[in-house]
């Protein structure tokens, strides 16, 4: 969060020809700069310094798979996810939605709430929400309505947000996601219910300049379409909720309805957290607002659970309140506005007639000049892709990839590549999984490219996998070859391996020489092995590996060492 | 609460319809009345039986503070509080309207479908227009007072005095 906010802030500063804004830059370093959550309209103080990793390590991790943890307390979490809809123009106006533009340039008179302007709904936003709802198995209300949710805040010029409170676009549905524990390698499938999906407007952004006692308002984001996805309270821990959000993000990105860039604020999550004793009624919930990375979701929720348990154990009571998460301290902080004091005064939006989703083309009025959205899509070829869960299932059933690996492969968009490598290029499934999930992903990360923009062709990759599966190259050499391929793409894998001398050492003589060297240098360890300390074998193996630069099979070395020592 | 309010609205609009029809007929017979307003010639005075209405809700200090917060209007004197009580009293008359079997209505356009436009950028890039009404501007940003500053915690003693006094009077009468 901190990092992303810095990025945003810098972006703002750069764009704003910052003569007058120098004080802001200086106050950045003084940590007096404040970022504002514009959706809930409250201030979250943040220090714009780097995340302290020491503090991160203080985090609590309590997921025991829903089992009572923490001295017999149960925690329950529900999420509200605000996903920005990927559209060229805003939800109700024709202004653009590009991120990081010069302040107040992507604003129409409607977005600035000029009197006499009226909302005109964007068909693409409706379509995106309908597609998302269909993918999540929701029931789509063929008639939904818009409401005004009132609050006074400078980044919401109309004084209200147009949303769908009473008759949302879609209700129900569920999502099967893969729970990933952040401390152990545990993975399992879980399912969470959804309550509703609604369309609503995003708010503008405020930059607070405390030194001068002013807020600077940029309305570029005001009026961008949001899908608010509300889940049932089906989560038990920070890991659980974060895993869900990761999977939901993958689905939205696959559908193309949201770009999923959490660092740019394209997805923001509010978490409702409560704790109770098993058997007791649910506890009072608090809401942690505006979490915009999966890491922050996990940390904030776990921290809030800890805090609530501590308060209750000490005989206190939990107040129904809104809190924000300070990524710097890893703590949640109460916000000034208590929830019970807020009155949103929901009213029907009189300027927008009911939104109708047609079953198919037949019920669409022919004389209307309006665009329309239908539930059944004919012949547009939209649904020719697999959702992440289907991809994982394919990998598991067809190629025997274990869940823990299929999650990684699918998340990095390597499903198509995997299919092609195995079915068109005859690659071994295990070798392909091994290479893709480690060396290849870190290679892509280093190159800062997507799976689709990889500089290495599929033929080269297949060649490399074949060499690897024959055991002619070690896994540590893979990244060297990949990097070399990206620089000089015309070379073949063999040439590179030859040039860099990366072939596995196959002659036993070289290995035995290395073993001799190690054994003579470490007589102490040999002695302790003789006394029965078998784990010394591993010590020897790593030392030998180091001499051979990793170009030999570890198990082979170990067996050779064992032979040698037993003959001593 | 909202639904009830909508029901009332619907009934009122039905009443208005009757009024329009009446005017329509009147046009044929009385050309002089062509430009007459929609306001009836004579005031209709209904006597309201206040006893049949729900009792006025208790207006305590917390409620006044809440109303001040959300309406940005201060009720900082006796007149203000009286006005509030009267407003609630007047609004209570709505309970007399019979809304049985009337579907709540959101908008007079509710038999229409929401118009959908195509996703094209047709607007924006008009910073000057957008900021033309702003009293204070900095580097293309609007300048606003910092954050959501809650109303100052004023001394509410005078209010509790008024409230206390009113209640005593009520009891007396």
Task: Write structural notes for this entry.
The complex is a heterodimer of chains A (568) and B (173). Chain A has 568 residues and is α+β, with helices and mostly antiparallel strands. Among the domains of chain A are: 51-264 and 344-348, no CATH class; 387-500, no CATH class; 508-567, Arc Repressor Mutant, subunit A. Chain A contains 17 helices and 20 strands. In chain A, the strands form four sheets. In chain A, strands 3, 5, 9, 10, 11, 14, 15, 16, 17 and 18 form a ten-stranded mixed β-sheet that branches. The longest helix of chain A is centred in the middle third of the chain and has 20 residues, at 294-313. Chain B has helices at 2-29, 61-71, 78-92, 127-130, 157-172, and strands at 116-117, 137-138, 141-144. Chain B has a two-stranded antiparallel sheet with strand order 2-3. The longest helix of chain B has 28 residues, at 2-29. Chain B is extended, with a radius of gyration of 24 Å. Chains A and B meet through strand 4, helix 4, strand 12, strand 13 and strand 19 of A and helix 2, strand 1, helix 4 and strand 3 of B.
């Amino acid at each position: 969060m901190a990092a992303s906010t810095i990025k945003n802030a810098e972006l703002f500063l750069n764009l704003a020809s910052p003569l007058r804004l120098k004080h802001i830059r200086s106050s950045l370093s003084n940590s007096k700069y404040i970022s504002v959550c514009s959706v809930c309209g409250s201030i979250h103080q943040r220090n714009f310094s780097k995340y302290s990793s020491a503090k991160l390590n203080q985090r609590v991790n309590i997921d025991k798979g829903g089992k009572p943890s923490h001295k017999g307390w149960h925690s329950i979490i529900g999420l509200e996810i605000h996903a920005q809809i990927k559209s060229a123009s805003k939800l109700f106006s024709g202004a653009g939605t590009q991120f990081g533009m010069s302040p107040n340039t992507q604003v129409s008179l409607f977005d600035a709430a000029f009197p006499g302007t009226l909302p005109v709904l964007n068909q693409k936003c409706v379509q995106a929400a309908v597609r998302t709802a269909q993918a999540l198995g929701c029931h789509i209300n063929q008639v939904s309505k818009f409401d005004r949710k009132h609050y006074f805040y400078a980044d919401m010029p109309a004084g209200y947000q147009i949303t769908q409170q009473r008759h949302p676009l879609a209700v129900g549905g569920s999502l099967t996601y893969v729970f990933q524990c952040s401390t152990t390698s545990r993975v399992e499938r879980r399912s969470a219910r959804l309550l509703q999906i609604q369309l609503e407007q995003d708010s503008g952004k405020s930059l607070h300049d405390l030194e001068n006692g002013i807020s600077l308002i940029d309305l570029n984001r005001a009026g961008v379409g949001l899908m608010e996805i509300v889940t049932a309270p089906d989560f038990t821990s920070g890991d659980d909720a974060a895993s869900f959000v990761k999977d939901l993000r993958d689905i939205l990105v696959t559908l193309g309805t949201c770009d999923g860039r959490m660092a740019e604020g394209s997805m923001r999550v509010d978490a409702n957290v409560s704790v109770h004793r098993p058997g007791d009624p649910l506890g009072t919930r608090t809401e942690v607002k505006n979490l915009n990375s999966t890491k922050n979701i996990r940390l904030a929720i776990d921290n809030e659970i800890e805090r609530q348990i501590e308060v209750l154990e000490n005989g206190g009571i939990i107040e129904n309140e809104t809190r924000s998460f300070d990524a710097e301290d890893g703590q949640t902080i109460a916000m000034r506005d208590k929830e019970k004091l807020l009155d949103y005064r929901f009213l029907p939006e009189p300027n927008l007639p009911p939104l109708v989703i047609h079953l198919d083309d037949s019920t669409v009025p022919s004389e209307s000049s309006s665009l329309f959205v239908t539930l059944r899509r004919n012949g547009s070829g939209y649904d020719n892709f697999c959702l992440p869960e289907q991809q994982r299932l394919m990998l598991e059933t067809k190629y025997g990839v274990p869940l823990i690996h299929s999650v990684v492969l699918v998340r990095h968009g390597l499903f198509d590549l995997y299919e092609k490598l195995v079915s068109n290029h005859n690659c071994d499934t295990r070798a392909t999984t091994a290479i893709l999930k480690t060396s290849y992903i870190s290679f892509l990360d280093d190159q800062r490219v997507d799976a689709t923009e990889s500089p290495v062709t599929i033929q080269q990759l297949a060649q490399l996998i074949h060499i690897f599966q024959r055991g002619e190259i070690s896994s540590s050499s893979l990244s060297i070859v990949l990097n070399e391929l990206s620089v000089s793409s015309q070379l073949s894998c063999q040439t590179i391996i030859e040039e860099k001398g990366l072939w596995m050492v196959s002659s036993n003589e070289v290995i035995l020489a290395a073993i001799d060297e190690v054994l003579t240098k470490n007589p102490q360890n040999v002695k302790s092995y003789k006394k029965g300390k078998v784990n010394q074998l591993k010590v020897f193996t790593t030392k030998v590996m180091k001499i051979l630069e990793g170009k030999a099979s570890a198990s082979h070395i170990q067996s050779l060492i064992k032979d040698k020592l037993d003959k001593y | 609460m909202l639904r009830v309010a909508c029901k009332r609205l619907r009934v009122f609009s039905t009443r208005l319809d009757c009024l329009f029809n009446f005017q329509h007929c009147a046009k044929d017979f009385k050309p002089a009345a062509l430009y007459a307003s929609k306001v009836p010639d004579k005031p209709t005075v209904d006597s309201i039986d206040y006893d049949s209405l729900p009792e006025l809700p208790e207006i305590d200090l917390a409620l006044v503070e809440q109303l001040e917060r959300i309406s940005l209007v201060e009720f900082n004197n006796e007149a203000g509080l009286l006005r509030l009580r009267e407003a609630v009293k007047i609004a209570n008359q709505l309970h007399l309207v019979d809304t049985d079997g009337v579907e709540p209505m959101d908008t007079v356009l509710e038999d229409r479908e929401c118009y959908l436009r195509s996703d094209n950028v047709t607007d924006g890039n008009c910073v000057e227009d957008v900021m033309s009404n702003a009293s204070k501007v900095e580097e293309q940003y609007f300048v606003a007072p910092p954050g959501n500053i809650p109303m100052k915690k004023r001394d509410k003693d005078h209010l509790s005095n008024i409230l206390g006094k009113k209640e005593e009077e009520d009891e007396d009468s």
